């Protein structure tokens, strides 16, 4: 999409679809200027139709009306935002996503969006831009009809009409640029998640990371089986043993140009990258295996976030660590009962080969912490238990360093990605106790997401650490707001906000990104995630 700010009467601005977001109670007295002007041009029919159709501007409500040539736009779209008192930019982001999907269905090439008045106008601009870009996303490259249409498509033109009394400013321009960059990165991550497992292997994922790093000026190092062996990552090697696809070890680095800043402790981002998870010898049922191409969503989010971080230029290094492999059954696959030795030296008894993600992450977290980061976050589609607890749209957050956890939760709230803190309780530690090794990789069914977090905690030492279980939100089961069915890119926005927050708390300024053209829970005892 190509965005621009305009001032004046939204109803007189050229565009095929006029979009007017409204709060509850704004259809009558106190209606925004855009609605009043459009209703006047339509001789009162717009508000009349809203009343007849029961449109009260509640959240999720929409109303489309033909203008019959009375305005430059052929149609008007009213979007409900719900109560102004309970407004959050995420409401506007979701509404803008609905507008983008409506525009696609109507096949319009230009939009006029009458921005609502809010307490934080820059946040509103960013939310609209992100919602439109995310809502316009489609993954249809494997459909013949879509491939035929693709070449003829041009970017949609979007005119953002500023509210009366609001002037274009550097803050608004920066918000637009940042929103566009973040949404593009999230959509890039969605593409990776939505690709079939035969298209995104560990090698292909590593190549995508290489191209992304080169494009955004990041340093990248990629290793294979030999490098993993040299690092003595016994858990990683165990998981990948049954696959014919060679594993990949990916390290992406952003380093500030200022020599003093370059020596600061880095932030570390670790993403789970199981490009296909069959469950190994603890084989998943077919229904639990179909969506396992999404088991690398954590790594996609980390790589997407690094694209934006490179543009933000925070005053400290940021490193991404990814161990990519498949988890497959074969004669040489690791087995229940095996004992693996981690890079940290801890021994792990394998009780379930479908609890594989935590094994790779354990070695990656050890490696990341050896770089002495000030804090580390891992993102992983780790447990079906977290979906049972929190559903399809809420991320489970774990960690025992309150300051770091609260920073991440604050960043998630700002970004509009809902998270809920769950305990990392020592009361569950007995579930991982082994009679023959230092620990087991999988405990009892109960408290499964806590057990997995406790396992990961063993590999971070005293480093402030947050584990984000994105098993539910990584893959939307249906269309909702700016989401389409499939990969969501969850985590990109939160990671970007976390880096921005860390920079701000250190009293530093971050450059804004320049604009560029640019599963359901299961009741069976078998784990659906690693």
Q: Summed up, what is this model?
A:
By secondary structure, the chain is α/β, with parallel strands linked by helices. It has helices at 33-41, 45-52, 89-106, 121-135, 144-150, 170-194, 202-215, 225-230, 234-240, 259-262, 286-289, 297-312, 357-369, 384-390, 402-415, 448-457, 492-505, and strands spanning 2-6, 17-22, 62-66, 75-80, 110-114, 157-161, 219-223, 248-254, 267-277, 318-327, 339-341, 347-349, 375-380, 395-398, 419-421, 439-440, 465-469, 475-476, 486-487.
Describe this structure in words.
This protein is α/β, with parallel strands linked by helices and 530 residues long. The chain is 36% helix and 18% strand. It is built from 17 helices and 19 strands. An 8-stranded mixed β-sheet has the order 7-8-10-9-13-17-14-15, with helices on both faces. Helix 3 (89-106) packs parallel to helix 4 (121-135) and helix 9 (234-240) packs antiparallel against helix 13 (357-369). The relative contact order is 0.12. The model is unreliable at 508-528 (pLDDT under 50).
